[in-house]
Amino acid sequence: MHSLLWLTSAATPIPEITVNPTSVTPGPWGFAAIALLAVAVVLLLLDMLRRVRRGRYRSEIREQLDAEEADAAGADGRDVDRPDGGSVPR
């Protein structure tokens, strides 16, 4: 029991620093690589936002055109669902 108490109370050794801290920095090449990566990510995000916005505008315009076509077909008595645009006999 006394030996178990001695093992738990022993101080843990602190490792010595064997490497020069200034020699393990990324340096200019590492900075350039990270900077290029950051620029590429920003450009990709801008492109993605542009494409999403364009798709949203196209869907809004498509909905407006469909609504206008349905209004025009309703006023003319045509059936929009038929490919020839003719009216359905009632």
The number of helical runs is 2
| Portion in strands | under 5%
Structural class: mainly alpha
Q: Biggest sheet, in brief? A: none
Radius of gyration: 36 Å
Oligomer: single chain
Helix content class:
55-70%
Keywords: Membrane, Transmembrane, Transmembrane helix
General description of the model:
Residues 68-90 are annotated as: Disordered. With 90 residues, the protein is mainly α. The protein has a domain at 46-75. It has two helices and no strands. It has helices spanning 2-9, 27-76. The longest helix is centred in the middle third of the chain and has 50 residues, at 27-76. The radius of gyration is 36 Å and the shape is elongated.
Q: Which terms summarize this structure?
A:
90 residues, mainly alpha, 2 helices, elongated, membrane, transmembrane helix, transmembrane
Gist?
With 90 residues, the protein is mainly alpha-helical.
